[in-house]
Amino acid sequence: MRALIAAATGLVLALALVLTLTALGAPTGETSPKPLLTTVPAHP
């Protein structure tokens, strides 16, 4: 019975953490103006 209570408590805490992070939203930021290198440079 203790294991069931512990599992339920952990599930509730995990759900509360997810909902809290969701409520905070994504952090504001900017993308880099430099493009990412997507190709390998030619070898000499």
In round numbers, the mean pLDDT is 86
Query: Share of helix among residues?
Result: 40-55%
Query: From the helix content, strand content and strand pairing, which structural class follows?
Result: mainly alpha
Task: Work out the radius of gyration.
Answer: 22 Å
Shape call: elongated
Q: Total number of β-strand segments? A: 0
Proportion of strand residues: under 5%
User: Spans with pLDDT under 50 lasting ≥5 residues?
Assistant: none
Biggest sheet statistics: none
Distance between the terminal alpha carbons, to the nearest Å? 69 Å
Enumerate how many helices there are, as a single number.
1
Secondary-structure element series: H
List the helices and strands and how they pair.
Blueprint: H1 2-24
